Amino acid sequence: MSFRFTNSVAKNVLGLAPKVATQSLAVVPEKAKMNVLAKLLSLTLSEQIKFGELDFLQSKWVAISVMDIGLHFEISFNDELLLRPLTQADVTFTANVPELLLVAAGKEDPDTLFFQRKLKIEGDTELGLEVKNLLLGIELESLPKPARLTIEKLALTLQTLQGYSSEQPQASA
What does this chain do (predicted)? Predict the structure, then answer.
């Protein structure tokens, strides 16, 4: 009896979380979302900015589409990170929150997700590979402690829920 409850609860949480996030994000004005994202990304990429590792993004736009929560934006770099709503990007990365979270936590390889069609990269392939390599070079340990701990805890929770939701009930003897 407890197995079905755990399996059912895990599936419900995994299905409900994106819906709640989508509804929550829908009430936040676009400008506020862009400002918060810009600050978070600037903080996350501060080392890469400091060492000029984002210079390849000058005059280039990378779109990020997080489909399951309806979050879409473009990012570029010109002495600072620039964010805007979707318009016309040079390359587009499309995925859902679970996949992005597991990549950020170092629990999943983006190439594996790409071949499983859980991560899509469309447009300028060379630019897409540069962005992917930049992101793979970000050490989780280099992130500010609150961001690192949040990513680690969310990834662990996600993996636990995915494990429970995919288990099959055992036949009783």
Answer: Required for O(2)-independent ubiquinone (coenzyme Q) biosynthesis. Likely functions as an accessory factor.
